Amino acid sequence: MDYAALGVAGIATLVAVTLLARRIGVATPLVLVLVGVGISYLPGVPPVEVPPELILAGVLPPLLYGAAVTVPLVDLRRNLRTIVSLSVVLVLVSAFGIGLLLYALFPNLSFAGALALGAVVSPPDAVAATSIARRLGLPPRLVTVLEGRAS
């Protein structure tokens, strides 16, 4: 697979979908996911396998940094207790809740496996949370708590 051609096509698609999302008034991350799923079902499109190391080292850090750097430090300190409690308690409750649900739905799945899957899907998407919160015009304190909790 030619990663240069894939990168150019990906960036062109990203720009086009971002402009489309703004025009129709829908959160950009949601439209990007829908377009990605749609492209994956097109006949003739070869499967793309991106090395996990590329995502972990090259894509994820800038996304998290971009979401974290926008949180004002004064607001973060003011809401630190709420942010920390949501970050720890809510992720634990989500992981165990999803794990228990998966364990109940899939009898062949071990409890440890179900809990591991719950832990994988329970952390929030920092970029989507920030984008959607700002677009909805939520109160500034709530946006700060969501941004701090997701970062």
From TrEMBL:
The chain crosses the membrane at residues 24-42, 54-74, 86-106. It holds the Pfam family Na_H_Exchanger. Residues 13-148 form the Cation/H+ exchanger transmembrane domain. It comes from the Bacteria. GO terms for cellular component: plasma membrane. It is found in: Cell membrane. GO terms for biological process: regulation of intracellular pH; sodium ion import across plasma membrane. Its main location: membrane. InterPro entries: Cation/H_exchanger_CPA1, Cation/H_exchanger_TM. Keywords: Cell membrane, Ion transport, Membrane, Sodium, Sodium transport, Transmembrane, Transmembrane helix, Transport. GO terms for molecular function: potassium:proton antiporter activity; sodium:proton antiporter activity. It is a multi-pass membrane protein. This is Na(+)/H(+) antiporter ApNhaP. It comes from Clavibacter michiganensis subsp. michiganensis.
